Amino acid sequence: NISNATSIAFHDYHPKPADFFVEVIDGLLHRPRSIPPKFFYNERGSQLFEQITGLPEYYLTRTEQAILEKNAEEIARIVGRNCLLIEPGSGNCEKVRLLLDALQPQTYVPMDISRDHLRKAAINLSADYPWLDVHASCIDFTQPLDLSFCPPDSQRVAFFPGSSIGNFEPDSATRFLAQVADVVGPGGGMLIGVDLKKDRCILDAAYNDTTGVTAQFNLNLLQRINSELNADFDLNHFTHHAFYNEHKGRIEMHLISQLRQAVHIEQHTIEFAKGESIHTENSYKYTIEEFQALAIRAGFVPVYLWTDADALFSVQYFEI
Ligand code: AVI
């Protein structure tokens, strides 16, 4: 499992895969109906998300990238060099590249539940940064993490970019950050990308792109249920609906049944009324103060933050 001259350490904690069938049936039988957004990311879904990140309306990815690029040196000064950098849900390990030259971490621990992607991404990264000690960990972040393979005395810093924290409900976001706090420990830090509250027109447009990629991304959930769970959703009879819920401070994504219809999934029949929704995602937006308050509840202290000139997005640094 080591390619070319590149070697990484690979730690497999054997995370238990989610039960797609059980979670989908559970979500569809409860009112309001819902499907957890983690199921967006099969192969097709990940490709569509990749396309979303390049859309003109979807400012999040490029704005965060610009913030990291522009401020890498200052981030490194404030975070400190030679740390042990941990990235939960590291995916393709692309974003961390923007920081590595400036930050010069001693060790990088990408963590993901998707074993093969993690291995490939870690090997590719290691080929480009041969000086970096890479310890890929296949783990569900809620499992206890044993970092005994790492130098014990280095400062631990978690990197959680992309405003993925926005897809957690605020209470679970707090619980998740408390776990991060536990992993990095006293003296540890967290560098996190957080999308900010702004004019609702900008938010609505980011989740309703004119080319319909976000609609395809949303509808791909039904396609995935059809092919993996032997269901008969008619994709022409559901439409993508996304809007900013000002009261809750979140973008909501739904799939709306265009007519009264019955859908079959294995032995289950689900009856949809015309106009009935399946709630597929929330993407919470925070003011800087709101997010700091959330992180404080999780045990962190705000240290520094960076935004773009239009205050669309923030990269925030906290310590314990
Ligand atoms: C991954 N996550 C931060 C994206 C978001 O903006 O909430 C997922 C997404 N949903 C629709 N477009 C992008």
From TrEMBL:
Entry keyword annotation includes Chloroplast: no
An example molecular function term from Gene Ontology annotations: methyltransferase activity
KW Methyltransferase (keyword) present: yes
Pfam families: Methyltransf_33
Any single GO BP term: methylation
InterPro entries associated with the record: EgtD, EgtD_Methyltrsf_superfamily, MeTrfase_dom, MeTrfase_EgtD-like, SAM-dependent_MTases_sf
Entry keywords, A to Z: Methyltransferase, Transferase
Domain Histidine-specific methyltransferase SAM-dependent: 23-318
SUPFAM superfamilies: S-adenosyl-L-methionine-dependent methyltransferases
Name used for this protein in its record: Dimethylhistidine N-methyltransferase
The species this protein was found in: Nitrosomonas communis
Lineage start: Bacteria, Pseudomonadati, Pseudomonadota, Betaproteobacteria, Nitrosomonadales
